[in-house]
Structure formats: structure tokens, C-alpha cells
């Protein structure tokens, strides 16, 4: 019988259980807003591709098709083009990975597909993944789709805290949880903007050894440092326990969708099987384009140009934050990459504040999107990679005014004790901790909460 009120989605009963768990990321939800010209977007992490030599790249791709059409427009190998895999090894050598063999590299459709492949290959539903708190939103989406459970490990200004990682490992062991791997972004973290210090790199590799822990090192920003040479990758220290994900999205172009995984041979075999099941092979044309770019264009100079541009934008962001943010607001000071992680004054909630910010024509990503457990409401991610410095200054000015207004409201309503503007408490509400308590003796929040270096200077 046809129902009298046709359902909005007639297939609603047929979806797999994991499909019901999928939700729009905080970033995608903002797309329609941030594309409005009057809005200054500090939300998206889009690289400044207009700084590329677009004509040179265009004619290079044209020449590829006219000269090598039979290969560039054909299916290719599941593992990826051998020439590109060789060049990828040269790129990784810049971060201390000098022992990589092209046979251990699998080319992927961005490092996002690399994340998906690795998760498919290792995780069953219910398995535990340790991940920094906060974590890259796209990784959380992949882990959720695999029905894995994420247990966040606290960070501070120097990145992931090794003592907290050890505590998490011990707790998981005591609970009988199967920890499949640690997922970490050691350089210019998305969203926290911090970098794992050299001593901590050693400590984490040491822990991996002692606890037989597999590490997934996701490193799209490592070559985008402002002040120093890249720190050696975790993979440079341990080729058995570290699987490395790389990408050309931030150093060349995200639109080409070329990334890679470097893994021991046995794992590489499984990754190739998984990629063949998923996409048959990575796109030939874009692989040839990246290989040709690395062969013929001054790509190291281009990366330098990108970092100078991002440094200028980082400076504009930090100077404006220093000058304008109300007392009680704190933030990280990245020395590379795209992001600043900002903590609101006590009691404010970045998700609740968002509509008021959009009304004031400024956009950010609420911190809640970067946690799998409902935490992060008092944080937000600000990206400085895309807007020009003047737009950044204007965006921060608008944001500061919104926070001031929010504080005013908060004070007013707090006086009459409506509770209306109270931030959601940590440790249970809004989805709660999926498992294991927070580390009791380590401050679980990134950067600014732990450092008076980042206190407001007004
Ligand atoms: C930490 C991290 N990993 C992976 C990705 C995905 O990048 P790709 O474009 O290579 O898929 C991003 C993109 O922003 C990222 O920030």
C-alpha cells in the first residue's frame, strides 16, 4: 500500500548501519556560507594555488596529453606510476627518509585515500584508534566510517604528550581494547598548528617499540615550515612501525588529488589490493602531471614561495589576534602550515557563537568538529592560508567584536543565572567519552591553555 504521506527518503530503512553514523563535517557544513563575498572566511584550509605558475602548469599538462596521450589517458598500475614513485622518494628524503624504496610506495588519490586504505586494511568495527585531541576532521570521518572507536590523546605546544600516550596505552590494555594504531600529524598540526618536538619524537618511537604500537604518520604540511629546516619524520627513525602518508596537495595542487603511502612491503601489498577494489588505479593523467612537474619545474623554489606567502598571512593573523582579542582568549603560534587553534574565554561556546559570527561576516570552524567525543566547544580553528593579509586583519577584527559581544551577553545572563550561555562541560556531555577516562594529571587541551606565552597581551 502506498503510504499517505510519502517519506522524504524512501530508501531510509535500507542504509547500512555505518551510513546512519555519517554526518556532514563542520567544514563542509560551512561551504555555502564561506563562499559569500561579504564573508571573510578563516574556515577552509584551501591552499593558495593562485601563487602557482598557472600558465606553465597549463602548458605542461597540454604537452603531456599531446605527447603522451596513449599513457596519460589510459588505465595504469594499481600501485601507481613507477617514475612518480621514484620522485616521491626524493621528496621524502627532504624530511630525513633516505631509505625508502619506490616499491614500498603506493600512489593514492590524495592522502585522504591513503588514510581510508590504511584504515580499511587494519581496522575492524570496535577497534580502537589513538589520535591526538584535537584531530584532523577528515581522518575522524574515515575512522567513523570504519566503525572504529577513537580515543583522543592530549597535546600541548610541543605536540602529542608521550606520558599521556603511555597512559592511554595502559588503559586500553587494562580494558582489553584492541589498539590498531596511533594516528598522528606531527608537523604544523591540523587543526592545532603545533609541531611535535624532537625529544618527543624520540619518546614516541620508543613507546611504539615498547608497546608494539603501529604509527600512522600523516604529514601533508612538513615542508611548509617558516623558521627552520624540516624535522626528521617519525618514519625516518622507524621503518617497521611507522606507515607514512604524504601529499602533493599543499606543496603543489590539491585539485590533482595525488598523495601516497609509504609502508613495509607486506602492508603495501594489502594496500594495493584495497586500492584496486576501490578505484582500480589512481588517475594516470594527474600522476604524470605531478611527475613532469617535479622533473621540469622549480618545485623547491615554489615551496619556498608558498611558505613566504603563508608566513606573511600567519604574521597578519597573530599580530591582529595580539592586538584585538579580549582578555581570556588564547591561541597557538604556528611556525608553519595553515592553522591557529584558538581558545575562547571561559564559558563561551564556539558552536553556539557561530551564527552570530556569520552574521558579522566572519567564518571559522568550531572546535567540536575535531573531536570524536563531543569535546572542543571552547575552541575554534582559524586558517590563514587562503585570505589576503588585509582580509585576515578584517576577519580577526570582526571575530574579536563577536567574542566581545558574546562575553557581554554571557555576563548579563550569568548574572540572572539562566545558564543559557554556559559552555558544555567536558568529559561526558555532547556525546561523552566513548571509553576510558581523561588523563587526570595532564592538562588535556592544546597549547594556549598550558602556556602563558599565549596569554592575551592587552
Ligand atoms: C592532516 C591532513 N591529512 C590529510 C589531508 C588530506 O589531504 P589530501 O588533499 O592529500 O587528500 C589533509 C587536508 O587538509 C590534512 O590536513
From TrEMBL:
Q: Mind listing the GO molecular function terms for this protein?
A: DNA binding; pyridoxal phosphate binding; transaminase activity
Which SUPFAM superfamilies does its entry note? PLP-dependent transferases
The cofactors it requires, by name, are: pyridoxal 5'-phosphate
Domain Aminotransferase class I/classII large stretches: 67-399
State the source organism's domain of life: Bacteria
Region Disordered, residue ranges = 422-458
A single GO BP term for this record reads: alpha-amino acid metabolic process
Q: Which UniProt keywords apply?
A: Aminotransferase, DNA-binding, Pyridoxal phosphate, Transferase
Listed CDD domains: AAT_like
**Segments forming a coiled coil:** none
Alphabetized InterPro entries for the sequence:
Aminotransferase_I/II_large, Class-I_PLP-dep_aminotransf, PyrdxlP-dep_Trfase, PyrdxlP-dep_Trfase_major, PyrdxlP-dep_Trfase_small
Q: Does the keyword rRNA-binding apply?
A: no
Q: Its family?
A: Belongs to the class-I pyridoxal-phosphate-dependent aminotransferase family.
Q: Give the multimer and partner information.
A: Homodimer.
Recorded protein name is DNA-binding transcriptional MocR family regulator
Q: Which species does this protein come from?
A: Petropleomorpha daqingensis
Taxonomy of the source species:
Bacteria, Bacillati, Actinomycetota, Actinomycetes, Geodermatophilales
Amino acid at each position: 500500500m502506498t503510504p499517505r504521506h510519502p517519506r522524504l527518503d524512501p530508501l531510509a530503512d535500507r542504509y547500512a548501519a555505518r551510513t546512519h553514523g555519517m554526518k556532514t563535517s563542520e567544514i563542509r557544513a560551512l561551504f555555502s556560507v564561506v563562499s559569500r563575498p561579504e564573508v571573510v572566511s578563516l574556515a577552509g584550509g584551501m591552499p593558495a594555488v593562485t601563487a602557482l605558475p598557472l600558465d606553465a602548469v597549463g602548458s605542461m599538462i597540454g604537452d603531456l596529453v599531446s605527447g603522451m596521450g596513449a599513457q596519460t589517458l589510459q588505465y595504469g598500475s594499481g600501485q601507481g606510476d613507477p617514475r612518480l614513485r621514484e620522485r616521491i622518494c626524493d621528496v621524502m628524503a627532504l624530511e630525513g627518509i633516505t631509505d625508502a624504496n619506490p616499491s614500498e610506495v603506493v600512489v593514492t588519490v590524495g592522502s585522504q585515500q591513503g588514510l581510508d586504505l590504511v584504515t580499511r586494511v587494519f581496522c575492524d568495527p570496535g577497534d580502537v584508534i589513538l589520535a591526538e585531541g584535537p584531530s584532523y576532521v577528515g581522518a575522524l570521518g574515515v575512522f567513523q566510517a570504519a566503525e572504529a572507536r577513537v580515543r583522543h590523546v592530549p597535546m600541548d605546544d610541543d605536540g602529542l604528550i608521550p606520558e599521556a600516550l603511555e597512559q592511554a596505552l595502559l588503559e586500553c590494555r587494562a580494558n582489553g581494547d584492541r589498539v590498531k594504531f596511533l594516528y598522528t600529524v606531527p608537523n604544523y598540526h591540523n587543526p592545532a598548528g603545533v609541531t611535535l618536538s624532537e625529544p618527543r619524537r624520540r619518546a614516541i618511537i620508543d613507546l611504539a617499540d615498547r608497546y608494539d604500537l603501529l604509527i600512522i604518520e600523516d604529514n601533508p604540511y612538513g615542508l611548509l615550515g617558516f623558521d627552520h629546516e624540516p624535522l626528521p619524520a617519525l618514519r625516518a627513525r622507524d621503518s617497521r612501525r611507522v606507515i607514512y602518508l604524504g601529499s602533493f596537495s599543499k606543496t603543489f595542487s590539491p585539485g590533482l588529488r595525488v598523495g601516497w603511502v609509504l609502508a613495509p612491503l607486506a602492508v603495501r601489498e594489502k594496500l594495493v589490493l584495497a586500492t584496486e577494489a576501490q578505484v582500480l588505479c589512481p588517475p594516470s593523467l594527474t600522476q604524470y602531471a605531478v611527475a613532469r612537474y617535479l622533473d621540469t619545474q622549480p618545485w623547491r623554489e615554489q615551496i619556498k614561495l608558498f611558505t613566504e606567502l603563508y608566513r606573511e598571512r600567519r604574521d597578519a593573523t597573530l599580530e591582529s589576534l595580539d592586538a584585538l582579542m579580549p582578555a581570556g582568549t588564547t591561541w597557538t603560534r604556528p611556525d608553519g602550515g595553515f592553522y591557529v587553534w584558538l581558545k575562547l574565554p571561559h564559558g563561551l561556546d564556539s558552536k553556539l557563537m557561530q551564527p552570530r559570527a556569520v552574521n558579522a561576516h566572519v567564518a571559522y570552524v568550531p572546535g567540536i568538529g575535531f573531536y570524536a567525543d563531543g569535546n572542543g566547544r571552547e575552541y575554534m580553528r582559524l586558517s590563514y592560508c587562503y585570505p589576503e593579509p588585509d582580509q585576515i586583519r578584517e576577519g580577526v577584527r570582526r571575530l574579536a567584536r563577536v567574542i566581545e559581544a558574546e562575553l557581554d551577553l554571557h555576563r548579563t545572563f550569568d548574572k540572572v543565572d539562566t545558564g543559557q550561555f554556559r559552555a558544555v562541560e567536558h568529559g561526558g556531555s555532547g556525546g561523552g567519552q566513548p571509553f576510558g577516562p581523561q588523563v587526570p594529571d595532564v592538562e588535556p587541551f592544546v597549547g594556549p591553555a598550558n602556556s602563558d606565552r599565549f596569554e592575551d597581551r592587552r
